[in-house]
Amino acid sequence: MLDIKKIRADFPILSREVNGKPLVYLDNGASAQKPQVVIDAITTAYSHEYANVHRGLHYLSNLATEKYEAVRGTIARFLGVADENQIVLNSGTTEGINMVAYGWAMPRMEAGDEIILSVMEHHANIVPWHFLRERQGVVLKWVDVDATGALDPQKVLDAIGPKTKLIAVTHLSNVLGTKVDVKAICEGARAKGVPVLVDGSQAAVHMPVNVDEIGCDFYAITGHKLYGPSGSGAIFVKSERLAEMRPFMGGGDMIREVSKDAVTYNDPPMKFEAGTPGIVQTIGLGVALEYMMDVGMHDIAAHEDALSSYAQQRLTGLNWLNVQGTTPDKAAIFSFTMDGAAHAHDISTILDKKGVAVRAGHHCAGPLMDHLGVTATCRASFAMYNTTDEVDALIDALELAHDLFG
């Protein structure tokens, strides 16, 4: 069970006020706040330990390299991956998925080949595949969710045809909070010889993840949602897929030798990590993941599940509020619109006046907005440090917005 007071004390920004009101930060789906240990680690790295990695023999370079490379093992442990050499470090999920699109998919797909996507995907797991559609004639096949926002794994598997080369699916919707049974999808796809990429950006922060048990070929995460710095992240790539991939970017560190006439590449995962990386960002990510594991992922999930149930009960009690996504096992992410002419941006502005921070817009999920028949929603997304009192503050702010726009 979480000690919420202690956890909240670890996040200095939560003690501030916004517009004269205590901050109620419910925009965690976009980016989570940072605990003091992460802030301290970043400050220490820049103040006392900074140097470039991998390239120097001096003390600071060795120290920075040791701390940076240790994060690969931390990420592997966090994701339940036995072999840390299957972890490619990067700037986040967007880079990871693009690496797969350019390095693995592009060389082996031709006109008419198919990629299966769910309608819930974030643009980061859509646009790279559109590149292949535009440039190589690849076909994108879409699988819809049901009226509650649930995605039936069997519908994904039924979409597989003789031309299917990849399934790319989210583990947890950033708009609806829907949890997807990616293990079932991976088991069925593997039986048909189809690789699966999982966007774990939202799932990894809300619940325990074991990639080896899921059985996917690729699993992408992003640091800034995991209480770590922006510009940090990683992607798990199964060893056989690493062997099939060509480098996404060229530069230092991803090579062994370069001459005028030839280049010899480094071994994976270094083969896919060109140039000076986000050294301090990655070190900060490692500290953030250690913090989460110390708190306990099962305890985090249990706390957020209780928050989700309470928030769902309070929100559905507002008969003028339309909540998108009503699956009973959803994560603590709630998108909603209000009856009448109130736009999501207007609602968000009123909530901000009460110190309640939510997201408003299409949430980088255009196909899902079209499916839902809306142009924008407000989204309240919860984290381990949020409380039922903050749910109540959200409800009070929504009632004020309704009074003003009603």
UniProtKB/TrEMBL annotation:
GO biological processes:
cysteine metabolic process
Asked whether the keyword Lyase is assigned, the reply is: no
Q: Does the keyword Transferase apply?
A: yes
Alphabetical UniProt keywords:
Pyridoxal phosphate, Transferase
Any idea of its EC number? 2.8.1.7
Q: Which cofactor does it need?
A: pyridoxal 5'-phosphate
Matching entries from Pfam families are given as: Aminotran_5
NCBIfam families with a match to the protein in the record: sufS
Its function?
Catalyzes the removal of elemental sulfur and selenium atoms from L-cysteine, L-cystine, L-selenocysteine, and L-selenocystine to produce L-alanine.
Family per similarity comment: Belongs to the class-V pyridoxal-phosphate-dependent aminotransferase family. Csd subfamily.
* Protein name, per record: Cysteine desulfurase
